[in-house]
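Running low. Any example?
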Amino acid sequence: MTTQSFLSTLEIFKKLTPAELGALERKMVEKKYAKGDSIFFEGDPAEHVWFIKEGHIKSMVHSANGKDQTLCMVGSNNLFGTCCCFGAGSYACHCVAETDSVVVSIPIRDFTEVMDKNPEVSKALVLQLSNRLRQSKDMQTFEQETVEKRVLHILVSLVEEFGNTIPLTRREIAEMVGTTVETCIRTFARLEAEGLVVSTRGKITVKSVQALVDQREKD
């Protein structure tokens, strides 16, 4: 798959002409990152818009108590790390390659020009950012809930991102919900005993999303 054909698969660029896609492709850079590599840090100048070609990327912030809090995990063919950078001047989160990854960056000034000329791109961007903000708001709603409810909520959100097979470990889920690995393992043991999920090396399979939702909504 060429870089230009990759751009044409992204929902946000579906309405662009081949000439417009070609012009944008000449402005962008493709780069590989090994698992654990930082792509940019919280507070770095927000100079690019980022998309995932392969792998998945974790966005996190450093909290006041000294711990890193995972905000979201984003899979291939998606925008990442850009929710709060338009007009802000700096990135609001630290983005790390959670797997070996290939990402594409476009200078934000060139991306803004495309938005100005193509309202459809602006609409698609607003929709994607709205979905990310909704997920963030949902996370805040569940912050005071039990660990099990937080895990259930994260799993439902991740199914939207990755499908029923989530390419994450229980350790990574623990980071996202803000609990210890041991507590997360015990929680997954209960969920597996109830037939809701199956966790194997490097992935978690959700048997039924609706069953997770029903369990989450129980008093």
